Amino acid sequence: xxxxxxxxxxxxxxxxxxxxxxxxxxxxxxxxxxxxxxxxxxxxxxxxxxxxxxxxxxxxxxxxxxxxxxxxxxxxxxxxxxxxxxxxxxxxxxxxxxxxxxxxxxxxxxxxxxxxxxxxxxxxxxxxxxxxxxxxxxxxxxxxxxxxxxxxxxxxxxxxxxxxxxxxxxxxxxxxxxxxxxxxxxxxxxxxxxxxxxxxxxxxxxxxxxxxxxxxxxxxxxxxxxxxxxxxxxxxxxxxxxxxxxxxxxxxxxxxxxxxxxxxxxxxxxxxxxxxxxxxxxxxxxxxxxxxxxxxxxxxxxxxxxxxxxxxxxxxxxxxxxxxxxxxxxxxxxxxxxxxxxxxxxxxxxxxxxxxxxxxxxxxxxxxxxxxxxxxxxxxxxxxxxxxxxxxxxxxxxxxxxxxxxxxxxxxxxxxxxx
Amino acid sequence: xxxxxxxxxxxxxxxxxxxxxxxxxxxxxxxxxxxxxxxxxxxxxxxxxxxxxxxxxxxxxxxxxxxxxxxxxxxxxxxxxxxxxxxxxxxxxxxxxxxxxxxxxxxxxxxxxxxxxxxxxxxxxxxxxxxxxxxxxxxxxxxxxxxxxxxxxxxxxxxxxxxxxxxxxxxxxxxxxxxxxxxxxxxxxxxxxxxxxxxxxxxxxxxxxxxxxxxxxxxxxxxxxxxxxxxxxxxxxxxxxxxxxxxxxxxxxxxxxxxxxxxxxxxxxxxxxxxxxxxxxxxxxxxxxxxxxxxxxxxxxxxxxxxxxxxxxxxxxxxxxxxxxxxxxxxxxxxxxxxxxxxxxxxxxxxxxxxxxxxxxxxxxxxxxxxxxxxxxxxxxxxxxxxxxxxxxxxxxxxxxxxxxxxxxxxxxxxxxxxxxxxxxxxxxxxxxxxxxxxxxxx
Lengths: 419, 443
Hints:
The complex is a heterodimer of chains A (419) and B (443). By secondary structure, chain A is mainly beta.
């Protein structure tokens, strides 16, 4: 058994870990939680609860928790008309998280979370048929969340934190303009740094048998004030149409979300957790770039996205195999916020199903190693984009293992379990 | 035990990696009930790859028949022989090169403006390549449907005489028959209305003047062609005639291009009254060009929204030479299509297309409705993020002569043929990737 678990750990280290949840949300905020299908709103078992439900901090001892993920998505596109298959270039993304939870008094806990809940990235080959729509995009957002929780009783707490978000977006596409003096078509690069603020609040009820949690993540408006708009390979005749050193403004609303979770024992050693999330994607109705200098060919771009609110369902099991080893398994279903006719190369989204597993090895009394693996499949989706006319089938799969450490700052105060 | 665990783990790892890869596959393709092993393309300048006012090597390479032949090769098509010109600026039939986009100093400004100019590479001689025939691409710039079966025509047309077997004897049809084709595309009839329209619909003076071809003759000629081409069981596709008056050659210069101040209008009105032309008045703002009209009382009138001013009108004369403004310089009939002329041209086009549709049914070949398709392109078409529309000298599908498509436009034409062929013969032939072809090249 031990060998098998070591092998499992080996796989975790070798492979990489991640999940792209619905839209451009990334569901990779904790190792233990991911192992159970990314549940954790109603199951506070480590400092990652700062993200999942800040009220849960009251029921977790002082500890530090860090983890690293590597995301290896694989995306392909079959153009219906030309029957040509495009494989996006394989890329590695490294979402991460860090959480620290400190007991300030019997009633009050302070915590800090640094995590990456949103992001997206895809890079297509240079000559692919959609290059006038998108060559590549990279969106990365880091949340910093200082938090407090207050414990009213042994059974009830509330918690909340302020969110400061910082990130960048990098979008590249070709422009269907060919200069006689250039080997390649004109090309646009949009790069901007942005930031925004929000909050995260929750409440946690803990009874002997059942835990319940409710969390609300506010919307965060990421604003790019002065991004660089760089145009390359522009023919002299059109230089005034694509001014040099142009800048752009953009706004990306990262949607609010409400989550309800529960967990309960189903046997002496086994605990079940389930979450239901509802994300208000409707706020993402268009993606716009407002250029500082507009010309007859360079008008402010506003392309409709019309995302729909989406639900996701998650469930997972945790099994205390030995005193030192916990095993986990879980699954989730994520509804896509992207409507038919709006699936675009920047996010070839669809409903998705994920399977996860994970383990914790308590190698020292205070030092635990967590690991998890995710396999995710975004169902094939065939449609014609209403704005660009791109017609075909997108498919994405992701395989993602991850590893993390948890360090307990205080000795355990609870009674050791005996098996 | 230990070994089996290791073995299982390795296998598990392998399967895990395998299942993370996407498994999209190209669709199976096939020729349906058609046989593309020997394909011949018959037509006029549009079939030859004529663009930017001339036939050139790069135009021939980017011709729609060459694109079709490339796609046909995916489903059993054979070699496709093209009567190539040498590299260079091309040839318009009178030893002028094609046009490229360059800078020209307008008569009324000191800032150079973008305008089509003759290719500085110079013209390419029309080399004689008849010894290397037969050719699969029988596209003859200038050819009308009614010329296709005339032996004399191969002597008159330098584009045909350079590759046909025996000038004065060979015809467009006889050249096409040399390939012994299993599949053909036929697109003729455009020049039967186009040359007349390009000339401003001036009444023909003699037998060589551009004229609208007689509808019965056009039908008879196309019927003869289909008769011969299908004789050995070959299948094919025939395209109809687009509305020629919708191309930029006729739509670029606005009918109301005379923009005046009140003072200037007053001066003109005084001048017209003094010359006894008081019925023609000018106002501040946009005015229709003054044009010749034998039906109007003083034999001239303002152009209206129903008139089309041709791109052949000398631009500097319009801007600085008082053309269309001065009572002494009304635009001549050769530079304007009026409402009645447009109606006649469209009526003939419709009659040709009725014949073509009827013959397509009679000979059981695919009908490519270019007339309808190019109307949809004109109203704006988006292909994988590229906006295509019929605006002259922009990011579009038409070349610098304002009539012929550029490479990107010919790719759209090829796809329209493929759609009809796929439908008619139950074939699955992939379309051409339009994004791989250039539009207008900018300096």
